[in-house]
Structure formats: C-alpha cells, structure tokens
Amino acid sequence: MIDGRFAGRLGATLYAVSGAVVLATMPLIQDDLATERLAALAVMGIVVGPMVLLLPWERHGRLFAGLLVSFGQVHLIVAEWLVPGAVAHYLPLYVLSYLYAGMTQPQRWSLLLTPLTIANFIQMGSHGADDTVLMVVTLPVGVAAAEVASWLVRREHEELEQVAKVLAATKRLVAADSTDEATRVVGELTRDLAGADLVAVFIVDASEPTRFNVRMRSEELDSLGPISLDIEREVSAIGTAIRSHRTVSVPDAVRSDFVSRRLVGAAQVGSGALVPMYDRGGTVGAIALLWRRAGERLTTSASQAVDLVAAEAGPILNRLRERERLNVEAETDPLTGLANRRTFNRALDQSEPGDALVMIDLDRFKRVNDEHGHAAGDDTLRLLGACLRQVAREGDCIARFGGEEFAVILPSADAEGVRAFLTRLRRLWTAAEPLTTFSAGFALRGKSEGSLFTLGRADRALYDAKGYGRNTDVEADPAESDVA
What we know:
The protein contains 16 helices and eleven strands. It starts with a helix and ends with a helix. Strand 10, helix 15 and strand 11 form a beta-alpha-beta unit. The relative contact order is 0.06. The strands form two sheets. It has a six-stranded antiparallel β-sheet, sandwiched between helices.
C-alpha cells in the first residue's frame, strides 16, 4: 500500500475534484434533472474532500482509504436516488474510485465494491438509463484498473523492501569483523531475497585457488558434513558460474550433471541458482541458493538484488580474509604453525593459579644441524610441533618459545596430568624416529604467584633436566606461597 498520508491527500483530492467536475459539467447535460440537488451533492463532495484530511491517516491509512472509497459508492447511490438518471453521465467516476481502491488496498479487495456498483447500475436501469453497454463495461474496467494498480503498488513495495534489506545488509557487512560473520550475513540475506529454501556460501581456499569450501550453510545441510569441491577436477554449476562470471540456474537438479548427487539425495534439492563473488577480477567465492521444488529460479528483481549483494560482499570478504591471514601470521610461528612468542606471552598473562607451565627443549639440536643440515633441523622442529598439537587438549596453548625451545600452558593441570601429557608426547615422538630427544621442565602456578615467576621455575626445571643427562622430565619445586 502507498504511504498513509499520501493516500489521504490523494483521496481528498480525488473526492474534491470529482465534485468540482460534476459541478462544472452540469450546464452541458441536456436532460431534465433536478439540478439543485445535483449541485448540492457536488458541493458535498468538494467539502468532504478537505475534511477527510483531518483523520489520522498515518496510523490507519488503509482503513480510512477503504471507508472513503466505500462512502463514494454510497454517495453515487444516494445521488441516483435523489437525482434519477444523473449518475449515468458520470460513469468514469467509478473507474476512478476503483483505481484509488487498487492503489490503497491489497489485491482483490476491489471485488468487495462490486455489490454496491451492481446495485447502483440496477438502480440506474430502473430509472430508464439507456447506456446499458457502457454500464456493463465500466465494472470490469474498474476492477481491472484496481487489480493492475494494486499489483504495481505491491511490486514497488517489494522492491523497496529489497533495497532496504540490501542497504541494511551492506551496513552489517561493512561492520563485520570476521569472515564467518560476513558469510552468515550474505547467506541469510540472499536466501531471504531469493525466497530459497536452503543456502550455502562457498569461499575459495587460500592455498588452492581452484578449491572452494563451504563457510556458511543452512542447518539442514549440516548432515552432509564438510562440503568442498575443486572446480577444475569436478563438473559443477559453481564452476560454470565462476568461469562465466554470471549467475547460473539449475531448474532441475535431479536430472542435472552439475549438482552433487549427495546434495540432491540428502537435502532433497530440486533446483538452484549459483551466484559468483569477485573482488578486482579475482574470485572470492559463490552463493548457492537452493529450492526443494524443481523449476524454481530467481525473479528479475530478486536476481538484481542478489547480484548487488554479491558485488558488495566480494571485496568485503576478501578484505576480511586478508586481515585474518595477517593476524594469523602475526601470531603464528611460520615454521611449525604453532603460536609464536607474542601469542604465548598474551596467554601467559591470562593464565591463572592452578595452571601448569611446561618448557621443552630439543637435546643437542646444534648437532642435528651440523651433521644433517639445517633442512633436517627444520624438519625436526616441525615434527615436534606436530606431536605437540596431536597430544594437546582444546584450550591448551602451545608455542615455539624461541630456537629449539617450546612452551606449553596446560590450564588446571596437576603434576599427574602434566606427566601424562609428557608421556603421550614422548611415546608419539619416539614412534616418529626423530634425530634427537627432548628434555622438559614444568611448574604448577601457585595461588599468589605471578605467571612470570612460574615460567622462571619451569625454565630452571628444564635446566635441571638437561643437567640430569637430558631426555627426561623434571618438576619444579612448589611455589613459596604454596609451601608457606
């Protein structure tokens, strides 16, 4: 529906203008009519028009518009009763009233007016009106005008809603601080705009430019597990969309070779549309919009809106991925992939009493480099990093502290738990047949001890392990606060 205030102004104008037209054209009518009564009814219309503006159209615009057009129909019935034969000269007013109804009411509401119109036509016929054909044509023309106007207003309203959604989503995209948040916004919005049943957002793999991984998807697709595809090795609609730089529709997914059989079977997908995303010519990903019923496709307006979202999302997603990559590089040791000293220090500041700190150092690492070369030394460091990741729990902090030294923070771990951790590590390390052994020292943080003091005690325990002949583990003495 059009804006309530505008509906009020339009209704008032139409009512007043209709009265003025009747008043101005009365001298042209040759029939013997009761001109005084007709003039009074016309003046009534001119007066009623401005008066309806006093109603609260902002709050109840549709209601008042419906009452106004219904009152207009009753006005014509009263006019025919008071001035028989007069309404037949003003049949275009019917089309005007139906057109106003179409602009202010939902579709098919105009059908509610037809009984009043038919009653007025019967009334005119009983008064000897001879424009039967014109009267019969007026009603369907009026209803048709109302339905077309209502459809156009609804379409405009839907398009404005889509524009508002796109603008709101763009603001959310710009404010997103992670790729996951941005892909969630993109997926939710495009699914809504397209009226799709399911959605999945694919992002290109940073290490494999031809591989695309799902970063966001509807909950109904979770049962499929990880979804990934290589557009060079696998035939897919996504690959076609990306290579052609355009949206690709799949009206019948069941019979298409471009859609995974696993997806069709598990998610009961009937049709789909694949929308690529780019940034400065480079591929960022693709949006998969899926319907369960075959034959569905994007409407023209929905396609334009989804394309606009994809165009906005591409650069934003690319920027977020680059920022995340730089953050990872800033906090990760490039050789082992573990946390670096900077990240460890931050975790150390956040550690609490009762946490365990473990220092690990490769034994005679210089000999490995001298006898086997620095490449072998790098492989040994990477191997220890991989073993540490494998035995660590979620929430443990594992870092390369510097050179051949590693540091671990085990939250809420007692001495027995630390020894179990180191036992698993040694078992895994020995099975890998490394070029050297390692020594470890650990300390449990006391109740009132600072984290740096605990780290110092763990480091001294590591020094003791080296002094005991290496390839062993040593627990530091309890903190002074705990002994006291």
